[in-house]
């Protein structure tokens, strides 16, 4: 941890941190103005999402889990000027992640060139700064340079306002109750695969690039820049950059991100090329999508009720998820639990029998009632980031196999998947979702609901699929989400 972190960046009370700096600059009709700018530019915003949870701030936006030419053509043909592509790179090792990013970027470029489409990219990552940085941005920056269209700036905007992730004085904070913790002092920074020490985003850049980019060379859009200087100041800072200069975006509310998005539009209209790496909140601002009320049960099932029962799949091992699972099983009746024993999965001699046991129990339970499929709660990590990722992939693969067995045996009314790797693998491999639409969220700014737009694969066309990140909500949120899906009150 840097000396600045140790000496300066302490825990902050919410009332103090959120009131720091000048008063927020509220621009009337900001999101509508952003949409108009996107339309005037005749350009699409394509979000490369490293797990499915990046759609937690938007609605009525297409999502692809496949980037074949016909899938990309479908997405470009939908209303609006943006869509998500689920790359799931956070669930891959560095070699796999690089290969996926290169493939996705090449296929987007080919389809766009064929129809003369213009587009910009956001690499959407975790709001607690876990993920393949700088690998992902380096891949995209390198590809842009190869075709003679280099980026002048790289916007780093990890804020996720609805979940209490904010950036002040370039330090990224995570909220817990009435207290904000510097992210480098949280369990997220000790992630087995993507660990880091720095809370100051400038230090984070230096740390993760191994000193290739010095913290002192990272630019910043301070709260004063954003709230006093407005979009023009944002534009000026971006236009002063060259060579993919990183720029930290400070933000404590959505209006800060609106100003940055408007300034970015000004800079792009003046010729700037900007790559963005962000949390979920900036995506909504960049697309000009305003908030809406949380979805009701009837809105989720607008196309009509489906037969069968609901399936809840939990792979996330963060402490909050474990508390949420405990509350779910304590509060809701008529939910059966099938627990997958992870130590048995990791034993070559026992794994097959464990899958067989769970398959029989899961199919039987789903024939009677809504069912929770959950990995055993004791987290098992390897002796390196790679080995820990392999363990997570093994667990996720087992949950996928069990989901596939359930789909083949019984009808599913709805599916909720909790955890980034889990929700991605269940969507793509378990349910074979290739195209979907984000219809909204179950709670303000968190827990997205998708509707499968597939052509009847496995009888799951129109299936509501809820993407629930591992590290959002409070102890009751999972139980509340299931209650909404079952038709109960909030």
Question: What key phrases describe this protein's structure?
Answer:
490 residues, Rossmann fold, Molybdenum Cofactor Biosythetic Enzyme, Chain A, 15-stranded mixed beta sheet, 17 helices, 40% helix, globular
Can you describe what's shown?
The chain is α/β, with parallel strands linked by helices and 490 residues long. The chain folds into 2 domains: 3-287, Rossmann fold; 297-485, Four-carbon acid sugar kinase, nucleotide binding domain (Molybdenum Cofactor Biosythetic Enzyme, Chain A), CATH 3.40.980.20. It has 17 helices and 19 strands. The strands form 2 sheets. Strands 10-11-6-12-5-2-4-3-17-18-19-16-13-15-14 form a 15-stranded mixed sheet, sandwiched between helices. Strands 1-9-8-7 form a 4-stranded antiparallel sheet. Strand 17 (435-443) and strand 18 form a beta hairpin. Helix 8 (223-239) packs parallel to helix 9 (254-269) and helix 9 (254-269) packs across helix 10. The longest helix is centred in the C-terminal third of the chain and has 25 residues, at 385-409. It is globular, with a radius of gyration of 22 Å.
Query: What's the assembly state of these chains?
Result: single chain
* Structural class computed from helices and strand pairing: alpha/beta
Principal-axes shape call: globular
CATH fold descriptor of the largest domain: Rossmann fold
Number of domains: 2
CATH class placement of the largest domain: Alpha Beta
Helix content: 25-40%
pLDDT under 50 segments (min length 5)?
Answer: 1-7
Sheet-strand content, in percent, reads 15-25%
Biggest sheet strand order reads: 10-11-6-12-5-2-4-3-17-18-19-16-13-15-14
Full CATH superfamily name of the largest domain: Putative sugar-binding, N-terminal domain
Rg: 22 Å
> How would a textbook summarize the main sheet?
15 strands, mixed
Our count of helices gives 17
Mean pLDDT: 93
For the termini, the CA-CA separation is 42 Å
How many DSSP-defined strands?
19
| Second rung of CATH, namely the architecture of the largest domain | 3-Layer(aba) Sandwich
